[in-house]
Specification:
Elements lengths: L5 H10 L6 E4 L6 H12 L2 E6 L16 H12 L10 E6 L5 H13 L3 E6 L20 E4 L5 H7 L4 H13 L5 H17 L3 H10 L2 H22 L5 H9 L1 H5 L8 H4 L5 H13 L3 E7 L10 E10 L2 H6 L5 H6 L9 H12 L5 E5 L5 E2 L1 E5 L2 E7 L7 H7 L9 E6 L4 E3 L2 E5 L10
Parallel strand pairs: 1-4, 1-5, 2-3, 3-4, 6-8, 11-12, 12-14
Antiparallel strand pairs: 6-7, 8-9, 10-11, 13-14
Helix pairs in contact: 8-9, 9-10, 10-13
């Protein structure tokens, strides 16, 4: 069983006095159902489980009154002995809650009643064109928790890296000292593996159990096809082909020298008016993350973001690799990350940052200045350069030389080297990027 960080978040939610019903949302197949059910088994005497996607008959439970006693009666009638309701000891799991909007509305009444904990899981919640909306979203009566595929630290746990070793990495980062060579070598290897495997739970488990990359790739491509099926199934009719074209253009977008997202790359003559809604659909589904350009690399980052100039990255780097040509996995595992004009390295950094719930920003000026990512770190604005080779971070050095113009606290260079510092730039092995979590 894969260890997930959401276990801690679920514990914190349950231990919060007078907690509201919980919604766990995230892209399909990122492990929501498995994690919630495993948590329920160990923390409650009784679990009442409804999956609205697999059992459409359950929708009828919420057709009439949403008063809690009525809903309990209806669940008991449909589930029989599978449904045991004991105040304080029963959790109700509403799986694929987006398929039953009235169940979402009912969370308000479960909150007011207070006898039972309720956890809903959902994909495509709030996605434009889904077509099923609750009478009212229970604002103030639900807690929403975003879930992602496994991040790099969870991948390390799955591959037997202990908390003690991770603490060693943290100490090396904090004290700016090199990672011991044996650990450095192992972490470099694991980073390459994570790049091609990513974090979809079934894919990670298959990799851990078998190490067979053909099986990994087949599973990843099945997931990508399932995403495309969702686009056809759930999007509004006129948007169906546009969303799919937008999604399939991502490797082309990132394979350009200038990785700014261009609608004309989606389709010749494409414009924002035609494709902007399609891109938003994919982002809302949790599949991609947008990285906005900044007017200036300074805080507040959100206030300096350019709304209509951005790059688009896949949230899960393994799925991104699976969308590239055959043989890319093999190249990456051999340490060749130079393909696609740095797109693989950039998407890997986006994966590390997005899964730590960071919004993504970069800085580009027509003069030639370009910083791959800009983050808030330890209270300051920090430039992050991503180098697949031992580049000299020219743009970062230029900005650091002009403190009167650019208000930045420092710069970090992520690449294939150990910890060090020179001319105000902290160089880090790429694998330490997952530890840049301090705001």
């Amino acid at each position: 069983m894969l260890r997930r960080k959401i276990e801690i978040a679920l514990e914190e939610w349950k231990n919060t006095p007078n907690h509201s019903p919980l919604i766990v949302k995230g892209c399909r197949q990122c492990g929501k159902t498995f994690s919630v059910r495993a948590f329920a088994e160990t923390h409650y005497a009784h679990t009442v489980y409804l999956n609205f996607l697999k059992n459409p008959d359950y929708l009828s439970i919420f057709d009439g009154s949403l008063e809690t006693d009525h809903l309990i009666m209806m669940m008991s009638a449909l589930l029989g002995s599978e449904a045991t309701f004991v105040a304080g000891e029963t959790v109700i799991i509403l799986d694929e809650i987006q398929d039953c909007p009235e169940a979402r509305t009912a969370l308000k009444f479960f909150k007011e009643d207070g006898r039972f904990d309720v956890i809903g899981t959902g994909s495509l919640l709030g996605v434009k064109g889904y077509g099923k909306q609750p009478r009212s979203v229970p604002v103030g009566s639900e807690t929403v928790l975003d879930m992602f595929p496994l991040d790099f630290e969870e991948f390390l746990w799955a591959n037997g890296i202990s908390e003690q070793l991770i603490q060693t990495l943290k100490t090396c980062l904090e004290e700016e000292k090199p990672v011991p060579e044996a650990l450095h070598k192992r972490m470099r290897q694991l980073l390459l593996q994570y790049t091609v495997v990513g974090g979809m739970p079934e894919v990670v488990q298959t990799f851990v159990d078998t190490k067979q990359m053909d099986s990994v790739l087949a599973l990843q491509r099945d997931i990508v096809r399932s995403y495309e099926d969702d686009m056809v199934k759930y999007a509004e009719k006129q948007d169906k082909p546009l969303i799919k074209e937008c999604f399939q253009s991502i490797p082309k977008q990132l394979g350009k020298e200038n990785k700014k997202f261009q609608y004309s790359i989606v389709k010749k003559g494409g414009t924002a008016s035609k494709f902007a809604g399609s891109l938003q659909w994919i982002e809302d589904a949790g599949i991609v993350a947008r990285c906005h350009n900044l007017h200036l690399p300074e805080l507040p980052l959100d206030g300096n973001a350019v709304e209509d100039v951005f790059k688009v990255y896949m949230v899960d780097t393994g799925l991104f690799i699976s969308m590239l040509e055959d043989g890319t996995q093999y190249d990456v595992l051999r340490g060749n990350l130079f393909g696609y004009k740095g797109a693989i390295f950039e998407n890997l950094a986006a994966d590390l940052f997005a899964k730590s719930k960071r919004k993504l920003y970069y800085y580009h000026k027509d003069s030639g200045l370009e910083i791959d990512f800009v983050i808030r770190y330890k209270g300051g604005c920090v430039l992050v350069e991503v180098k697949s080779t031992t580049g000299n971070a020219k743009s970062a050095r230029t900005i650091l030389r002009h403190p009167e113009k650019y208000h930045v606290a420092g710069a970090i260079k992520l690449g294939d080297y150990n910890v060090g510092r020179a001319e105000g730039i902290l160089t880090l092995p790429f694998y330490l990027g997952f530890l840049l979590t301090e705001y």
